[in-house]
Structure formats: C-alpha cells, structure tokens
C-alpha cells in the first residue's frame, strides 16, 4: 500500500506513525503528520540522496527487494496532540532503562484502542473506506457471527468464528456462507462442510457448559478464497443493528424458513 484514499485522508486528522524495517522487524522511525505523510519517506528515498540514517535504511530495504512496513500508532488528533504522542513515544523508545521490555502487565487495552489505536495502514484504510454491503441485492444467504469479544490481529479467525454458539441449527444450515464480523466489517467468509452445524457434546465439555442451559453448536469448513465471492462480501461494512440487539448471531436474509 502506497497511499490513503481521499476519504481516509479527510477522516484521519493528525496521526503518529511508525516505520518498520522488514529486514529485522524493528521500528526505525517515529513521525507525525496528516494525509499521506507516512508514505512520503519511502517515495523520496530513491530520489533524494541526502545522507541520513532514516533514508539510508529505506534505501537498503528497497535495494534488497523489500518494502517498508507502516503502522499508525494513534490518529484522529490535533497537531498539538500528535506532537505530544510522538515525543512521548520517542522518549520511551530511546530511554536506556527501557531498552528491553517484556511481560507487559496491561491486561485491558488502552483508551480508544480500536477506534484510534495501533493499526497497519491497510487496517486504517479498511476502517474508513470500506463499502457497505448491499443487503437487498446479495445473491446468497449469509449467517453473520460477531467476534468483537475474541478477535485480535494474531487470532485464528476460523477457530474463533466456528464455535460455540447458541442457535437454531435448522435455520443456520440454510445459509450459503458464514461471515465473521468485527466492528461492523466482514473480516472472513466460510463455507461449512456437508455435516452442517453440529452440537457440542456437553459431557465432553462439562466445565465449559457449567451454568449454561442452552445447547451450543459449531461447524467445520474452509475459508472462502474465491475472488468473486470475496469481492461481494469481504471487507464490506454491515448496516448498524437496532439498539439493544446484542445477539452475536445475525441472519442477513429474511428468506430463511422459520
């Protein structure tokens, strides 16, 4: 990725960004800016032969056939706020006593972790520039599962989507695809195998089912990689649910048999 769309640029505000060297996966530059500032260094490095550590690292990355990795640390800030975040993070990274950091104890993610928190530039673009799903004209029946409570960047999205859910298996088996939704955006599409939704055997999961009276179900299947199906559904934004509708299972079609 080499630039943000116009819509994303207009929404981002000021941000603090990180440049990562893919050769050792380490941060080599922290900066602040707006619009497409994060990408400008890599574009300028081959053209500007001014001596600097930052540009020399970028040139080495390019010479070895790699690309700089980009992350947005915080966004949606004023310029003054961006200065403060930038300087605080640089202080942290360059302070001798913090040269080795491990076993971070912050169990709960920081304030605004999803809305404004650390993301790749691809995730930033997805957050602000994904297209809405055309609910009325889609050709397939979709069962949507909300994974807000379990999803993170290193999670196995198949494993956290496929189990264990309270649902009507007869209705669920009518779906053509299962889609995983995180923060209102479809993140993956799955095709269930011929066994369909299967009941979790409570006898084998006594501790998990302790205090749970309703039967739970799971599926086995594969992630859909067909480009036409992905084009229709992947990274599409879902309509907002009605207030108070908290069920993680959402049938995106009114044609199911009850």
Furnish the topology, listing elements before pairings:
Blueprint: H1 6-12, E1 14-21, E2 26-33, H2 37-44, H3 53-63, E3 69-77, H4 79-94, E4 119-120, H5 121-129, E5 142-146, H6 157-162, H7 169-172, E6 177-182, E7 185-192, E8 198-199, E9 217-218, E10 221-223, H8 227-233, E11 249-251
Helix pairs in contact: 1-5
Short structural summary:
With 258 residues, the chain is of the alpha+beta class.
Report on the structure:
With 258 residues, the protein is α+β, with helices and mostly antiparallel strands. The protein folds into two domains: 6-129, GIY-YIG endonuclease; 142-251, no CATH class. It is 26% helix and 22% strand. The protein has helices at 6-12, 37-44, 53-63, 79-94, 121-129, 157-162, 169-172, 227-233, and strands at 14-21, 26-33, 69-77, 119-120, 142-146, 177-182, 185-192, 198-199, 217-218, 221-223, 249-251. The strands form three sheets. The chain has a five-stranded mixed beta sheet. Strands 2-1-3-4 form a four-stranded antiparallel beta sheet. A two-stranded antiparallel ribbon has the order 8-9. Helix 1 crosses helix 5 (121-129). The chain is elongated and about 65 Å long. Mean pLDDT is 82; it is low at 101-114.
Helical content band:
25-40%
At the first level of CATH, the class of the largest domain is Alpha Beta
Helices and strands, in order, run as HEEHHEHEHEHHEEEEEHE
Strand content: 15-25%
User: Shape, please?
Assistant: elongated
Question: Which residues sit in consecutive blocks of at least 5 with pLDDT less than 50?
Answer: 101-114
**Sheet with the most strands: spatial strand order:** 10-7-6-5-11
